[in-house]
Amino acid sequence: xxxxxxxxxxxxxxxxxxxxxxxxxxxxxxxxxxxxxxxxxxxxxxxxxxxxxxxxxxxxxxxxxxxxxxxxxxxxxxxxxxxxxxxxxxxxxxxxxxxxxxxxxxxxxxxxxxxxxxxxxxxxxxxxxxxxxxxxxxxxxxxxxxxxxxxxxxxxxxxxxxxxxxxxxxxxxxxxxxxxxxxxxxxxxxxxxxxxxxxxxxxxxxxxxxxxxxxxxxxxxxxxxxxxxx
Length: 230
Description:
37% of the residues lie in helices and 14% in strands. It is α+β, with helices and mostly antiparallel strands. It folds into two domains: 10-105, tt1808, chain A, CATH 3.90.1570.30; 111-223, no CATH class. β1 and β2 (39-45) form a beta hairpin. 23% of the residues are buried. Mean pLDDT is 80; it is low at 19-24 and 212-222.
């Protein structure tokens, strides 16, 4: 535990018992302060064989007691950074610098902007070729199939577009985590691409981390939460 000017009596130590992991009223492992000396990050350290995420509620309680916005969960091998004001814990490969934390402070997801973004069937095609509709090959209905094939344009099917719209409606109602399920061969990759574009374009995600196992093995696709890395 690292807390300045904190004294622990022998009786308090005895009350903890032999296993500090199992006590109901423990102490903060590390409390990191900002440049003004105010609590900023609570670091909850678990033993190597434990999942750091198991300490989420314990760390949340500590952070709220200290009025700290951020939590780091770690078992020495895996580390998670958690901004309690937005999103869920995300894996980090190194402890964040003061500048990185400042960047988190600046990042402000906007659920309304996400919900109001217009997503039509050409949402991905517009990224591939913004001016496709003005091309001669597109203007001629007879030439459209060849034009689409030549330029590898991808258009959302109705049910794919509806899946994106469902995420938008859920976000408008206050949801911060999303999951959609689609059968094999129905275009999860294209639908995911549209949702990734939606989050990035509306400023509700900063970068994309693919979750290939979720898509390939479960038939579902995890959708980034508001404020998360997508």
